């Protein structure tokens, strides 16, 4: 399938360290080489880079690694195609506008027999189940709050309801952000770590690289990194529970809930996860 | 104000030659240094690069110049801020989805007393008159064709009507593309050239660079380049008439019309154009 990487921070932070380890899984330390993408929010603006080359060899990935873009919300994805051809329009993250804000979405999983009714306000451009789910989520949020964006806690509970309706179709690990906060949902596999004062050194699993965050940070910094599999081997990452949906704000989890997964779906997901 | 660059081709073509000359106007040969952006369509997919640095010095512009992305439809923009702060969310081109396709828009001009009624399906993220006009256009096209995309000629005539309603607010040179075709409208200043077999050499105005297209092309190639001001000094560029709207398909103009500009607007535009 694919792998996800997200970052939510209290102050604008560059993701080059985590991205270096993550990008290595796109063809060097792992086989997710069917395209990749990364989205950086800078206030309300969003920069989205996608490429159908592998993240390990793409010139655009090289740029991202060498040009530190500071952001409070980042979502990245490396793809091993399951549904949808290896085409640029099928590369995650996907982007849409809602309530005068850009929204970014990336998915790791596989949805079966999933044919949501889309009224037309959001339509997929590519052929993935993932972009279909994103359109379904955007449509659901807009329908519940047609005028303007509600407070994040209300948004969280509506997202919980929409996620419940989608998660019964299969593996649905995802990340979603509007630049203010990051929502992460796990159906099979997702981990996070909160780094805060006093910061320490971290060593990548996928590349022999160590960074001592203490040298680059202040007490005001706080960073949550969310990834399919832990990126460092000398820190303790927290595993999401199956069905868990977490809202990350200012670098830390602020709301958590568990979206029930029907038993038969959980069983199928466990079988599918073997190949993650 | 700003400058625009567009390319529409019969076969996927790289724009690095034209972009090199154009980007020099973002801080070297001209003063449009308040951000820049470029969008490349690759079939239905779209890659959009934006940066608030000047195009002359941006590392992302360097990547675009050195990594030849082949595309049939490209729109680029360099900005000299008039309305809206120098923020990333105000960098053109802008992107939205309509009928399951990405749409890209960039504008050179200045719209006065322009407050269209937006129902909410498209809302600006930034604070420019340009993104507001793009939302107005997207909403107008969707309202006229709520189900799916009509043939390009029908789209052209609806765009003509929408343009008429906006152009009375001031200078409205723009480019719009959905990846299939490129629509270009001139209210004060826009030029184009069609390059086709037998191709010849071209020399940039803004950089001492010559390319002999004959070495890189076949009879199947045909390229229209559209720009605020001609980019080369040894070719004949065609000037758009004030109000002219042209549809470019497969590298050539296929439909043309003139959207009338009220006399009082034309007079004001001429005064504004002095600072273009």
UniProtKB/TrEMBL annotation, chains A, B:
GO terms for molecular function: transferase activity. CDD domains: YafJ. Keywords: Glutamine amidotransferase, Transferase. Pfam families: GATase_4 (PF13230). It comes from the Bacteria. The keyword Transferase applies. Residues 2-251 form the Glutamine amidotransferase type-2 domain. InterPro entries: EgtC-like, GATase_2_dom, Ntn_hydrolases_N. This is Class II glutamine amidotransferase.
């Amino acid at each position: 399938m694919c792998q996800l990487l997200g970052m939510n921070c209290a102050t604008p932070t560059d993701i080059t360290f985590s991205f270096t380890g993550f990008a290595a899984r796109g063809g060097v330390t792992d086989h997710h080489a069917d395209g990749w993408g990364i989205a950086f929010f800078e206030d309300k603006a969003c920069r989205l880079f996608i490429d159908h080359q592998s993240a390990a060899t793409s010139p655009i990935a090289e740029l991202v690694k060498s040009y530190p873009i500071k952001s409070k919300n980042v979502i990245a994805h490396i793809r091993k195609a399951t549904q949808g051809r290896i085409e640029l329009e099928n590369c995650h993250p996907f982007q849409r506008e809602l309530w005068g804000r850009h929204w970014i979405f990336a998915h790791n999983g596989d949805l079966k027999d999933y044919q949501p009714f889309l009224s037309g306000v959001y339509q997929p451009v590519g052929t993935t189940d993932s972009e279909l789910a994103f359109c379904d989520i955007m449509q659901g949020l807009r329908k519940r709050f047609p005028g303007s964006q509600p407070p994040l806690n209300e948004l969280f509970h509506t997202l919980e309801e929409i996620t419940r309706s989608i998660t019964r179709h299969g593996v649905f690990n995802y990340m979603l952000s509007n630049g203010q906060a990051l929502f992460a949902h796990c159906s099979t596999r997702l981990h996070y770590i909160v780094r805060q004062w006093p910061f320490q050194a971290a060593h990548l699993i996928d590349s022999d690289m160590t960074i001592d965050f203490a040298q680059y940070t202040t007490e005001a910094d706080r960073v949550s990194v969310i990834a399919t599999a832990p990126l460092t081997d000398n820190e303790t990452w927290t595993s999401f529970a199956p069905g868990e949906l977490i809202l990350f704000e200012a670098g830390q989890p602020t709301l958590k809930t568990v979206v029930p997964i029907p038993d038969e779906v959980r069983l199928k997901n466990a079988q599918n996860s073997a190949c993650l």
